[in-house]
Design brief:
With 120 residues, the chain is of the alpha/beta class. The chain has one domain: Udp-n-acetylmuramoylalanyl-d-glutamate--2,6- Diaminopimelate Ligase, Chain: A, domain 1. It is built from two helices and nine strands, in the order βαββββββαββ. The strands form three sheets. A five-stranded mixed sheet has the order 2-7-6-5-4, covered by helices on one side. A two-stranded antiparallel sheet has the order 1-3. Strands 8-9 form a two-stranded parallel sheet.
Length: 120
């Protein structure tokens, strides 16, 4: 996973943030499971009590949430912002390996070493 500055995230989602823009996050997690180097979000207010206990290094919260925390990134829609961030930085998919049994490969084809061929 890449290390992304909170400042980059804030700029990307158009959020408001008062903390350390140089802080780095390397992944995402739920509020109750997040560590200092991870980003989390609060979309459903029934989980608001977890804000006091979370170890998350940065947290996407609604603009109108009462209170203040230097880790909060205030946005209009935390769920949507989180989805955008996931897609941009943290959606690494494992590279396929080998040749799919459903692949159609010409008998005259020459394949290199360590190639991946999907089904076609």
């Amino acid at each position: 996973m890449p290390a992304v500055s909170v400042g980059e995230i804030v700029d990307f989602v158009g959020g408001q943030f008062q903390g350390d823009r140089e802080r780095r996050v390397t992944g995402v997690a739920a509020l109750g499971e997040a560590r200092e180097e991870q980003l989390s979000f609060l979309s459903n207010r029934k989980y608001a009590p977890q804000l006091a206990e979370t170890k998350a290094g940065a947290i996407l919260v609604p603009q109108n949430l009462t209170g203040d925390d230097e880790r909060w990134i205030r946005v209009d829609d935390p769920y949507f912002a989180f989805a955008r961030i996931m897609t941009r930085w943290f959606s690494a998919r494992p590279m396929p390996k080998g040749i799919s049994p459903e692949a159609s490969i010409a008998s005259s084809a020459k394949l290199g070493t360590n190639v991946a061929v999907g089904p076609f």
